[in-house]
Amino acid sequence: xxxxxxxxxxxxxxxxxxxxxxxxxxxxxxxxxxxxxxxxxxxxxxxxxxxxxxxxxxxxxxxxxxxxxxxxxxxxxxxxxxxxxxxxxxxxxxxxxxxxxxxxxxxxxxxxxxxxxxxxxxxxxxxxxxxxxxxxxxxxxxxxxxxxxxxxxxxxxxxxxxxxxxxxxxxxxxxxxxxxxxxxxxxxxxxxxxxxxxxxxxxxxxxxxxxxxxx
Length: 215
Known about the structure:
Elements: E1 6-11, E2 14-19, H1 40-43, H2 45-58, H3 64-73, E3 77-78, E4 81-82, H4 84-93, H5 96-99, E5 102-103, H6 113-121, E6 125-132, E7 135-145, E8 148-154, E9 169-172, E10 177-183, E11 189-196, E12 198-202, E13 207-214
Antiparallel strand pairs: 1-2, 3-4, 5-13, 6-7, 6-13, 7-8, 8-12, 9-12, 10-11
């Protein structure tokens, strides 16, 4: 009943492999520089989201374990979590960005939503962002629906039921359903929940994003 490490689907004519961060099978280490025993399952949202961006741009499926190793070796994992600008810059310098189908212009985190909107609607590329503090997702497409600017999110942690995300969700992609166990704080099994990894969200609250320019 529980969804595994990845699911494959097609949406908008594109094949998408969703890396399900909720799966405890993602055991590859992804530690901070302090010994916190982090793994891709509990800390790999940035790695998964870059893989999602790369597949959207190139059609290739990338392996999160390999990118996690590169990130830890090149400054993308520090005391404060994934340092996206450092990781993206290292990917540019060492040729990994081209393999993933993007270039990064070393401009750090941005908050100018008009630029993001033009970037997505004019198919210039994709973006990484925080829909909430501490969690990174991929933004890969845009549309206007009911007079509102909306963006297509690929969320490795499938947070459509989260109280911080639910108010901005406008449509969930049903084929991206992720079912996971719910337990109490003491580990007692309480039941199952289903959330969605692909969804359309309002663009009005998007912030702290990095633009990835298509090659």
